[in-house]
Design a protein that fits this description.
The protein is mainly α. 88% of the residues lie in helices and 0% in strands. Helix 1 runs parallel beside helix 3. The termini are far apart. Keywords: Coiled coil.
Length: 218
């Protein structure tokens, strides 16, 4: 029995040493897990004599209490900071929601960009508020996007016409250059032919880009 208790005392002193080494840690999540494992080991270790057991437990618990007190203090500071950040973001939400209904997409987008930049700088907020305020900001973003898409669809025929006109213009330019090239070849002007071939190649590249752009517009 004495040997068993002596072994228990040694084992618990080793656990106390580990607990003391962790007491000043600021890695809150990892150290909390480490203390849980130490507690499991403590429970699995045989008990020492009553008076000695109580003394050992007090030392072990003191190390834990020190760590958790530090963690709670850090959490309080963090919570206070997050609450202040929330106040900043709520003010930004007021500015964002004041943009509704959207009357000028460009000015609304510019204002929203400033709000989004300030939002990112404001930092984290309490977890319970995060989704709620982000949904409110997203609603404003969606409203601006919706008006922008509506305007795009209204103006799309004009955009398509301009794109098609550009294609036609490049085709006409290439046809003209081809005629000039043929005339230069007939006249034996090889330098002019070479120059015109370069111009035609450049124009064809622009034509392909214009056709690609027109195709994306449907």
């Amino acid at each position: 029995m004495d040997a068993s208790r002596t072994e228990a005392v040694s084992a618990k002193k080793a656990l106390i040493k580990k607990a003391d080494e962790l007491a000043e840690s600021t890695e809150w999540a990892n150290t909390t897990t480490a203390y849980k494992k130490l507690m499991d080991e403590w429970k699995a270790t045989a008990r020492a004599a009553k008076g000695q057991e109580e003394k050992l437990w007090a030392e072990f618990k003191a190390a834990q209490d020190k760590f958790f007190a530090n963690r709670n203090a850090a959490n309080s500071v963090r919570d206070e900071e997050f609450t202040k950040n929330l106040e900043v973001k709520l003010e930004l939400l007021k500015k964002a929601e004041a943009l509704l209904p959207i009357t000028n997409v460009d000015s609304a987008k510019a204002a929203l960009r400033e709000i989004q930049e300030a939002w990112e700088k404001a930092g984290h907020v309490p977890r319970n508020d995060k989704d709620k305020i982000e949904r409110r900001l997203k609603a404003v973003e969606d409203a601006i996007r919706s008006v922008q898409e509506e305007q795009w669809h209204r103006s799309k025929p004009e955009v398509v016409d301009r794109a098609n006109s550009l294609v036609t213009s490049f085709e006409a330019s290439i046809a003209k250059l081809e005629k000039q090239k043929a005339a230069a070849a007939t006249a034996g002007k090889t330098a002019d032919v070479s120059k015109l071939e370069t111009q035609i190649a450049q124009a064809q590249g622009l034509l392909e880009a214009a056709r690609s752009g027109a195709a994306t517009l449907g």
